[in-house]
């Protein structure tokens, strides 16, 4: 099977797209053409794929990227058995003549608008009905896969869920240490950037450092650079997911300090499962999905939402208690690792994901928007 995968929004090393889905397709012996912003992100395409470089869609400057992607998809569609796109914008750039097409829904587009601070207020207010119209049209014309069960509420039809699980090492990682905490993922104000800088400042006298591993929004980069120059933390910028998680191993705690927002409440942030997979105790704000998982497994601590100083204070107290109790943090890390290994290991999902695409590629006239509900087993 020849699959064309496309994105102009996501990083070419995006964990779900590249390290999970494309890897699963390659491991199954399929050919992959990957349309993505390689040059913009300074990424060398991995061996085994046919790479097509396009501009990245950033902020309000998306027209050039969309036109380039439309041209690339038209070319790729000529010999592809299936198109797999990851951006809602690319639904507007699909070639008229194309093979079976799949939209991987792994963002609540409307819910995420509030976090897009570059959008002027009037633009943000008119986008929801436009997004709903695009989603409704897509449901009639292409196949959908959903990253979370909670996304079902957005679509009247039934669509398979391919959960955003991670790779879990086959043997237990090293136990949590006592001198650093970590954050892995995109860094923004809505994801707790200000709180994490304050946590780093308060922990410095105790000899505990914060490692930030991930790209950051433009509005928080000066704050992070200042904190790094002051010796409060180490900010590594973008690191491919597999390397980032190895860097997280042995940390005292992993932070997930997302702010309260309706579209986030039912979700379990992938970073929570990733910390668990590496035996790192989790410190998370009480989003419903995250709090339920961490509380049930006993693999971390839940801190309340609140203003920056209050959240930072709660995190610091949790971290200091963990540092003083090596047995407790080791037990948390071990419980998280076992839970991730048995219930959140991507290879347990990968085969069914590939089989799903194979079935759709062989049935070009079928779009199962009204088919019986199906969830890829975890």
From TrEMBL:
Per the database record, which ranges form the Glycosyltransferase subfamily 4-like N-terminal domain? Answer: 16-147
Name any one Pfam family assigned in the record.
Glyco_transf_4
Fetch the InterPro entries from UniProt.
Glyco_trans_4-like_N (IPR028098)
Query: Mind listing the UniProt keywords for this protein, alphabetically?
Result: Glycosyltransferase, Transferase
Q: Note the Gene3D superfamilies from the entry.
A: Glycogen Phosphorylase B (3.40.50.2000)
Give one GO molecular function term: glycosyltransferase activity
Q: What superkingdom heads the lineage?
A: Bacteria
Name of the protein in question: Glycosyltransferase family 4 protein
Give the originating organism: Microbispora hainanensis
